[in-house]
Amino acid sequence: MNSPGTQHDSPYPTVLITLVGTDRPGVSADLLAVAAQSGSHVLDLEQAVVRGRLLLTALLQPTGPADELSGAIDQLADRHGLNASVEPGHGDNPSRRTGRASVVVLGSPLGADDLAEVTAAIGRQGANIDRIRRLSRDPVTTIEFDLSGADVPSLRRTLALIAAERSLDLAVAPGGLARRGKRLLVMDVDSTLIQDEVIELLAAHAGREREVAEVTERAMRGELDFAASLRERVGCLAGLDVSVFGEVRRAVRLTPGARTLVRTVQRLGYAVAVVSGGFLEIVGPLATDLGIDHAHANRLEVRDGRLTGRVDGEIVDRAGKALALRRFADAENLPLSRTVAIGDGANDLDMLAAAGLGIAFNAKPVVRDQADASVSVPYLDTVLFMLGISRDEVDEADRVAAGGDATGHETSRAAGAASLDSPHA
């Protein structure tokens, strides 16, 4: 049975109206007022504004004479200085195909040739681009394609090859409701949430920074077993006084955009976790400062106020990170499909593979090649764009949290009374 107002049970034709020109207030209201005068049913209505240019389309089913509607639209266009097109609708108003997916492409700059290659590949896969929107333009340009008729695993494999060939950052993810609602974000710490390798900061106090850095680099490239390399590096810390923890905490530098990423996803209802092959003595206070829900890392053995050069308990290695992600997801009552993991090293690979979306952040080649998505710019909050969150939405959330309404007007606080870090602090 067809619902009332569809073309199957109505003798009236459909009319497709397109208005193009300089955007101004009141255009859509006037269009709908004209449609109401002709007794039209609205079958579809879409509007986009790009750099002040308006594209407004409406699929109407008038119950009065279509030529009268056409004349009223021409008058409306003249009043607003717009170009108008009125043409017969063609057939039924089709529903969107299944196989919803989102493709996000990020670049600084973002070349037209890159986007041409991506969109051509989408077409070859048999998917249709239903909508395109810009998520950000500074400091990176991010474009999101909303698709139907897509096979996400197949499209992800195809676009991963293009991303590798063209050094593009992109993500392919299920669309629709899969992009909304609560999720779990799990991050690596060293060289991801923070700019530093904590063990190297500790080793600097022992005078063995270079030695430890060389071992760390080999382990992150996957050339050494992580557990064995960690024991070797921790051995270099033997004899350090526990006061070193406070000094290292003060020296740690957050990755630009870290606070913005954490606070934005928390405002959206996400749970946030960190899991690290580093040390809880540093990671724990950092997680507390950021309001992070879960933290898991190694512990350093201490006796008589000094480090023994050994790890206390089981080492958090590559497999341990994936287990932690699963444990965090269980604690939040979320399936793995609703998890996002971010990491940069070989010991993050199992965690990235287990997550619904694994993102390589300024990662080693072996990690970038195996992750679902990659980011190669030094701003951690660009991960938000991979999740379909625009810069405008981030800025709006900041204004509201600072005491303004969605338009940026102050509500309950004096102007300037609340301060937040910059978008990349």
From TrEMBL:
Cofactor(s) in the UniProt record: Mg(2+)
Keyword annotations of the record: Amino-acid biosynthesis, Hydrolase, Magnesium, Metal-binding, Serine biosynthesis
BP-aspect Gene Ontology terms: L-serine biosynthetic process
Organism superkingdom: Bacteria
Pathway: Amino-acid biosynthesis; L-serine biosynthesis; L-serine from 3-phospho-D-glycerate: step 3/3
The EC number(s) this enzyme carries: 3.1.3.3
Phosphoserine phosphatase ACT domain residues: 102-172
Family annotation (InterPro entries): ACT-like_dom_sf, HAD-like_SerB, HAD-like_sf, HAD_sf, PSP, PSP_ACT
Classification via Gene3D superfamilies: 3.30.70.260, HAD superfamily/HAD-like
Active site annotation, chain numbering: 188 (nucleophile), 190 (proton donor)
Family per similarity comment: Belongs to the HAD-like hydrolase superfamily. SerB family.
Protein name per the record: phosphoserine phosphatase
Species the sequence originates in: Flexivirga caeni
The gene coding this protein: serB
